[in-house]
Amino acid sequence: MFGFGRRRCPGMHLIEQSLWIVMASMVATLDISKARDAAGCEVEPEVQFDNPVFRTPRPFRCDIRPRSEQALRLVRQAADAAA
């Protein structure tokens, strides 16, 4: 994805570290769980991949909620700072 040898992307380490920070922040501030149907039962996601080379999964439904009001404020502050 980032190339190799002399043609390697010079920003590779920056992107990987930035992605790590985003993922760690999401795990720390959000509860991520399976989606629920109208009856309140969990819906098992159907895992399907579109691209056999990069193994890109198809979109699926999930439930993402802030862990607390403080976590919600942190997410909003980060979004406002990025804008």
TrEMBL record:
GO molecular function (one): iron ion binding
* Chief location category: membrane
Cell membrane as UniProt keyword: no
Cofactor(s) needed for function? heme
What domain of life does the UniProt record list for this protein's source? Eukaryota
What GO cellular component is one of the record's annotations? membrane
Question: Where in the cell is the protein located?
Answer: Membrane
Record keywords: Heme, Iron, Membrane, Metal-binding, Monooxygenase, Oxidoreductase, Transmembrane, Transmembrane helix
Gene3D superfamilies with a match to the protein in the record:
Cytochrome P450 (1.10.630.10)
Family of this protein: Belongs to the cytochrome P450 family.
Protein name, UniProt field: Cytochrome P450
Give the source species. Postia placenta MAD-698-R-SB12
